[in-house]
């Protein structure tokens, strides 16, 4: 018995109405989630000294692209499992890369901070004021820490209080070592203490922490490389197996059970890599 030609359009209409009703019911939560994502991206871009003017447009465009991928896998390629897994990684991937870039920049600043402290102590010992010493750091320190000192000096020269500029830099960098550095500068600026001695002691502590971090990094370098190789190995094995048994390998991409196996392996592979990085990156 054939189905009525009216049923399919009606089913699509009812499905579209249901999707629209669901989207309308969660619009406030979606707007809140979108605002949180945009604020987090803007925060990381500011830490990277990148422009943030068109963040909303980029986020909306990326969501539309993700929706197109869902339609492509679900309707065109008839692979609903991939339509769930790949868009999920499309949404999380750029945020993870942006987060990693911000972390690397912060780590580079941490590595340069001890030398900047020693340079400041020498400038103060030479008779320069705190503002003049910060100007020396802004002009002689390497990037990216010189960019932060240039902003501090520029805002201070424009009339902003030194305490406010240091507080904003501390909030922007989110570095415990810089927080100690800023606290020492503020204490010296307010009470006139011996800034060079305080900063030298902090610099010695920071150098010792950096020495321990480098030791941990060197001892776990081989394990981190092994984690990368293990993450790449399944893809290499899949390519090799395609040349050994192309017929059965092709079924992984054409049958629902194959889609499920590939998606499961992909998810577990990514989770294992992230877990390995988390274990091999201890916080000292």
What does it look like?
Among the domains are: 104-215, Receptor-associated Protein, CATH 1.20.81; 221-279. Helices cover 85% and strands 0% of the residues. The chain has helices at 7-25, 27-47, 55-76, 80-125, 130-140, 145-157, 162-173, 176-191, 195-219, 221-244, 246-254, 256-279. Helix 4 (80-125) packs parallel to helix 12 (256-279) and helix 5 (130-140) packs across helix 6. It starts with 6 loop residues before the first helix and ends in a 5-residue tail after the last helix. The model is unreliable at 1-7 (pLDDT under 50).
What structural class do you assign from the helix and strand content?
mainly alpha
N/C terminus separation: 71 Å
Order of helices and strands: HHHHHHHHHHHH
Principal-axes geometry comes out as elongated
* Number of helices in the DSSP assignment: 12
The portion of residues forming beta strands comes to: under 5%
Low-confidence stretches: 1-7
CATH architecture of the domain at 104-215: Up-down Bundle
Give the SSE layout.
Blueprint: H1 7-25, H2 27-47, H3 55-76, H4 80-125, H5 130-140, H6 145-157, H7 162-173, H8 176-191, H9 195-219, H10 221-244, H11 246-254, H12 256-279
């Amino acid at each position: 018995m054939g189905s009525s030609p009216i049923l399919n359009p009606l089913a699509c209409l009812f499905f579209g109405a249901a999707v629209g009703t669901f989207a309308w019911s969660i619009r406030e939560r979606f707007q809140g989630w979108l605002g949180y994502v945009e604020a987090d991206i803007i925060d990381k871009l500011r830490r990277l000294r990148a422009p943030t003017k068109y963040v909303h447009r980029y986020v909306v465009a990326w969501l539309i692209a993700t929706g197109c991928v869902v339609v492509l896998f679900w309707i065109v390629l008839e692979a609903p499992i991939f339509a769930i897994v790949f868009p999920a990684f499309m949404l999380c991937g750029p945020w993870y890369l942006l987060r990693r870039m911000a972390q690397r920049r912060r780590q580079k600043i941490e590595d340069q901070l001890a030398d900047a402290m020693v340079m400041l102590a020498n400038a103060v010992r030479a008779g320069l004021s705190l503002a003049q010493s910060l100007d020396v750091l802004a002009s002689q320190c390497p990037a990216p820490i010189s960019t932060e000192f240039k902003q501090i000096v520029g805002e201070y020269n424009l009339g902003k209080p030194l305490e406010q500029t240091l507080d904003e830099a501390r909030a922007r960098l989110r570095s415990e070592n810089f927080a100690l550095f800023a606290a020492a500068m503020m204490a010296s600026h307010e009470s006139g203490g011996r800034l060079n001695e305080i900063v030298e002691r902090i610099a010695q502590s920071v150098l010792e922490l950096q020495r321990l971090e480098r030791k941990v990094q060197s001892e776990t370098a081989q394990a981190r490389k092994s984690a990368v190789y293990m993450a790449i190995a399944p893809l290499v094995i899949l390519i090799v197996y395609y040349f050994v048994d192309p017929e059965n390998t092709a079924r992984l991409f054409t049958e629902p059970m194959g889609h499920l196996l590939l998606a499961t392996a992909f998810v577990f592979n990514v989770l294992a890599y992230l877990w390995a990085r988390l274990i091999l990156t201890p916080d000292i």
